[in-house]
Amino acid sequence: MGQEKNYMIGEISLIDTNMLAYAYDESEGEKHEICKRLIDGCWRLREKYGISIQNLSEFYVIITKKIENPVPKETAKEIIGDIIEFQNWIVIDYDARTILSAIEINMAYGVHYWDALIAATMREHNIFSIFTEDSDFKNIPWLKVVNPFESMLE
Q: For the PIN domain, which residue ranges apply (predicted)?
């Protein structure tokens, strides 16, 4: 955290919680493989991705409690620590004003509040693209939504 906003508008995409969780959940088969490759691009310095502190918090709960084979809490802590410290992960946060912006997005586009908070945080950090399978984000007109699983559905 505390990383400078030294990237260009539209240069990076945010990785939503579900993408990060699938990357570490081997029970998810093809979704795991797709997300692992996606995330691997960041670890191998080919891509820079944004991730919010909200995503990291949600990720911790999901991989330690909600997946078929939960990850030990210490392992989850190490993964999150690595993301926070790694140069190609841009960790973004929000402040009290972001909450008001999220409420506006929630009211204007009918998006679930927690998704609206991620969108508001993204906008404040000039990130306008998100990798997710959550279709709610498609209701936000200024946001480009990329679902890496769409080829699986065809």
A: 14-142
